[in-house]
Design a protein that fits this description.
The chain has 408 residues and is an alpha/beta fold. The chain has 9 helices and 20 strands. The protein has one domain: FAD/NAD(P)-binding domain, CATH 3.50.50. The strands form 4 sheets. Strands 4, 5, 6, 7, 14, 15, 16, 17 and 18 form a 9-stranded mixed β-sheet that branches. Strands 9-2-1-13-20-19 form a 6-stranded mixed β-sheet. The chain has a 3-stranded antiparallel β-sheet with strand order 10-11-12. Helix 1 runs parallel beside helix 6 and helix 4 packs across helix 9. The radius of gyration is 20 Å and the shape is globular.
């Protein structure tokens, strides 16, 4: 039996491991911290193909410069000398055109269209977790704020997806935590959500139950093709060989993949979240696009997530970012206990300048990467794992991941 090492125990890495097991491979997963220790844990858990869209769009030209100097803005970055960050931002902003948006959207659409089916496959295949099929509530303070969102949905539909959207007369029937400041709302069908940490842990459990190994506290120093077999070199110098290796380390992907020919910049786009109690139970996901706030029912509470902070992935949590989300929540929500927050969290999402993931073989034979999904690693993780496993097993690249060549 051929054996594979997967470096990274987040959604993408574990979904890849699960699908490799489906094809008869023996799998070992290595992670420096453990299962769902990175951005797979505290995110909003959205399985929303209708919102799995390019991050860079023309509105950034007006929004971005103002956000730099607004401490409560959803977009945040440090004002400091950081050549790598500024190089990334220059390339990211170069994609902020309608033509670039449409090109990236066309490339994302095929994998968006199969994303939910990939979750069904996991759940029918023995992963003891559940995705929730409920409409999303989309809220705005005034009509003018909704124009950009409606344009995005129209773009998604133009590229071939379904995104049923209808106006709500009384949004508080579905989202009782909305304050009276939210005067315009829509219902978006066809999406789902999960409790991301428990869901990823359930995939890990399934991998182990089928004979896989998951090793935490495994700090990987490098991945090499030198020798008879590709190998992982741990920070302590120990060498572990395998027939094939997958690098799925999220915002840290470049550190291991750059010497293997993967030159696309991967920048940490950090998101923040916390959970609160609500007077009335939260049952539906809530999105406040004007403020980039994504909220989801989570283990009897309500998870509020937001911001895109461009910093280094290992920097500490900055309390000011949590405060900015709290300030907005006090204005837009009611019946939520914002003074008793739990699970305050920051996680580093791997953002590429062109908004597309990096999925496929590196320049080194039998060494692959899976990452760079930006905010969409959770929703696209299972489909990514399925088609990467197919490529590794058969040499055939599925149409859904062809645009994501990591050597582009």
């Amino acid at each position: 039996m051929k054996n594979v090492i997967v470096v990274g125990a987040g959604m993408v890495g574990l979904a890849t491991a699960w699908h490799l097991q489906e094809r008869g491979y023996e799998v070992t997963v290595l992670d420096r911290e453990g299962v769902a220790a990175g951005s797979s844990w505290g995110n909003a858990g959205w399985l929303a193909p209708a919102k799995t869209i390019p991050l860079s769009d023309p509105s950034l030209w007006s929004y971005g410069p103002k956000a730099v100097f607004d401490p409560d803005a959803a977009l945040s970055m440090p004002i400091r000398f950081d050549p790598k960050l500024w190089m990334f931002l220059a390339r990211f902003m170069a994609q902020a055109t309608q033509r670039a948006w449409d090109t990236t959207m066309a490339n994302l659409t095929p994998i968006d269209q199969v994303a939910l089916e990939a979750f069904d496959e996991l759940e029918l295949g023995g992963v003891k977790a559940q995705s929730f099929k409920r409409p999303f509530v989309i809220g705005f303070e005034e009509e003018s704020q909704s124009k950009g969102f409606q344009k995005e949905i129209a773009g998604v539909i133009r590229h071939g997806q379904e995104a049923p959207l209808e106006r709500l007369d009384n949004p508080r029937e579905l989202a009782p935590m909305l304050s009276d400041e939210v005067k315009v709302a829509f219902r978006l069908e066809g999406q789902r959500f999960i409790e991301p940490g428990p869901y990823v842990e359930a995939i890990a459990q399934a991998v182990v139950e089928r004979g896989g190994k998951i090793i935490a506290d495994a700090e990987v120093g490098s991945v090499t093709a030198q020798g008879d077999h590709p190998a992982v070199i741990l920070a302590n110098g120990h060498r572990i060989e395998a027939d094939k290796i997958v690098i799925a380390t999220g915002a840290w992907l470049s550190r291991l993949a750059r010497d293997l020919g993967v030159r696309t910049l991967v920048q940490a786009g950090r998101g923040y979240s916390f959970s609160v109690a609500t007077e009335e139970p939260a049952e539906h996901a809530l999105y406040l696009p004007h403020h980039r706030m994504a909220c989801t029912p989570y283990q009897g509470r309500f998870r509020i997530a937001g911001t895109m902070e461009f910093r280094r992935p290992d920097e500490p949590l900055y309390p000011r970012r949590i405060e900015s989300i709290v300030n907005l929540s006090r204005h837009l929500m009611q019946g939520v206990d914002l003074d008793n927050r739990q699970d305050e969290w920051v996680g580093s999402r791997p953002v590429t300048p062109d908004g597309m993931p990096l999925v496929g073989q590196t320049k080194a034979e039998n060494i692959y990467v899976a990452g760079g999904h930006g905010m969409w690693g959770v929703v696209l993780g299972p489909a990514t794992g399925k088609y990467l496993a197919q490529l590794m097993d058969t040499g055939e690249t599925h149409e859904a991941i062809k645009p994501f060549d990591p050597l582009r």
